[in-house]
Design a protein that fits this description.
The chain has about 100 residues and is mainly α. The chain contains four helices and two strands; from the N terminus they run E-E-H-H-H-H. A two-stranded antiparallel ribbon has the order 1-2. The structure holds zinc ion. Zinc ion binds next to loops.
Length: about 100
């Protein structure tokens, strides 16, 4: 069998709802279930696991949840000021960060 969230083959997984998870993914999925429960959203573990799988294995795509509100507002204002789309601003910021990393 394999982990529903990362696709790694596993001898024995931990079952959460209908999902089978490896030890690495188990806490991640559980945290997401908890977050959704608090937000009043559906908490099907298999749906969440498959979503994590897609995000991990879709090259060049990444869905970022729960961006701190103030950071997001600041980013939106800056994008407007510079005449950039949010996508352009995010990619520019990421590139600048990577260029500066020692
Ligand atoms: Zn896994």
């Amino acid at each position: 069998m394999m982990c529903d969230a990362c696709g790694k083959p596993i001898k024995s997984g931990t079952g959460v709802g209908r999902a089978i998870l490896c030890r690495t993914c188990f806490p991640d999925v559980l945290a997401e279930v908890e977050r959704r429960r608090e937000a009043g959203e559906p908490t099907d573990a298999l749906t969440i696991a498959r979503q994590i799988f897609r995000e991990t294995h879709s090259a060049g795509s990444y869905l970022l949840r729960d961006i701190p509100e103030q950071l997001w507002i600041t980013a939106k204002h800056r994008a407007v000021d510079e005449g950039l789309s949010l996508r352009e601003l995010i990619l520019k910021a990421l590139q600048a960060y990577l260029n500066n990393t020692p």
